């Protein structure tokens, strides 16, 4: 996995591989499409079993707690089975490269 955690992150270094593994697992299991909206905005389309929204909201909240530059917006969508949602991720200009790395990670996993 090639994703550089920014210096602005307050997540302890020992916990960073675990958090990246959580994102990687979520992306591999649920992300179907990644849309680059702007250099500072990416949109991910996810589907999965019941509980997906709660999982995404929990991970987004924990990530925002240590990397306050991330803004996550979770929007549920209709699903034939399980749950579907759109995850919008936005960052300030100075963290655009972090978003590019995260979106690339999601794109490779989907």
Helix content: 40-55%
**Main sheet: strand order:** 1-2-4-3
β-sheet strand percentage: 25-35%
Number of domains: 1
**Total of helices:** 3
* Biggest beta-sheet profile: 4 strands, antiparallel
Q: Supply Rg.
A: 13 Å
Low-confidence stretches: none
Classification by helices and strands:
alpha+beta
Known CATH architecture: 2-Layer Sandwich
What general outline do the C-alpha atoms trace?
globular
Mean pLDDT: 86
According to DSSP, the number of beta strands is 4
What is the CATH level 1 assignment?
Answer: Alpha Beta
* CATH topology type: Gyrase A, domain 2
Could you spell the SSE succession in H and E letters? HEEHEEH
Terminal Cα separation, in Å?
14 Å
List the topology elements.
Blueprint (H helix, E strand, L loop, with lengths): L15 H15 E8 L2 E8 L3 H15 L4 E7 L5 E8 L5 H14 L1
Antiparallel strand pairs: 1-2, 2-4, 3-4
Helix pairs in contact: 1-2, 1-3
Detailed description of the structure:
- This protein is of the alpha+beta class and 110 residues long.
- It has one domain (13-109): Gyrase A, domain 2 (2-Layer Sandwich).
- The protein has three helices and four strands, in the order H-E-E-H-E-E-H.
- A four-stranded antiparallel sheet has the order 1-2-4-3.
- Helix 1 (16-30) packs antiparallel against helix 2 (52-66).
- The mean pLDDT is 86.
């Amino acid at each position: 996995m090639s994703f550089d955690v920014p210096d602005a992150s307050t997540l302890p270094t020992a916990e960073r591989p675990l958090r990246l593994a959580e994102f990687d697992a979520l992306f591999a299991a649920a992300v179907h499409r990644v849309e680059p909206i702007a250099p500072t905005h990416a949109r991910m389309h996810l589907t999965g079993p019941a509980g997906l929204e709660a999982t995404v909201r929990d991970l987004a909240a924990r990530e925002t707690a240590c990397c306050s530059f991330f803004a996550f917006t979770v929007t549920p969508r209709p699903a034939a089975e399980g749950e579907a949602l759109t995850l919008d991720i936005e960052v300030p200009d100075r963290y655009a490269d972090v978003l590019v790395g995260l979106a690339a990670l999601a794109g490779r996993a989907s």
